[in-house]
Amino acid sequence: MSTFEHHVSTTASAWLTAPMPQAQSVTCMIMLAAGSRYEAAETNGIAHFSEHMFFKGTKRRPSARDIAGEIDAIGGEFNAFTGKEYTAYYVKCAAEHRDIALDVISEHVAQLPVRRREIERGRA
After folding, report:
1. Per-10-residue mean pLDDT for the chain, 124 residues long?
2. Which one-letter DSSP state was computed for residue 100?
3. Would 15 disulfide with which of 7, 31, 97, 123, CB 3.0-4.6 Å?
4. Long-range CB contacts for residues 110-119, cutoff 8 Å, separation at least 24
5. What is the pLDDT of residue 112?
């Protein structure tokens, strides 16, 4: 029996879960195949730059303060990182707040608004 469970949805996204009933915390992470290895010379750094845009806000959480406030309210932490093969976004919190963590992380990756002002500021 494997420690991990692999799920594939009808939208071609894959989910890997590692159930640990005894754990009191959870990490919800989304990993995208968008690492530095896949960048051309003219787009060098775009994966890491996109990672930083993650923290700028969404429709339901319009500012970085709104994002941080919601995660802080459940005693969690959130962050992101970029590697050669992927860019990852995650929320760690008490297991009882898993649904909030999943809502926050999925909204940020799926519905991240592109704000020209933030992009220009990030370029500087």
Report:
1. 73 76 89 86 83 78 90 95 90 94 83 59 58
2. H
3. 7
4. 111/58, 111/59, 112/53, 112/54, 112/56, 112/58, 113/57, 113/58, 113/59, 114/53, 115/56, 115/57, 118/53, 118/56, 119/53
5. 53
Residues with a catalytic annotation lie at 51
Rounded (10°) angle between helices 98-110 and 64-73: 160
What is the chain's percent helix, strand, coil content, to nearest 5? 40, 25, 35
Please indicate, yes or no, whether the overall pTM of this predicted structure exceeds 0.85: no
Reported as half-sphere exposure (CB side, CA atoms, 13 A), residue 15 has a value of 11
CB 28 within 8 A of CB 101: yes
Torsion sign (Cα): 63, 67, 68, 69: positive
pLDDT of residue 33: 83
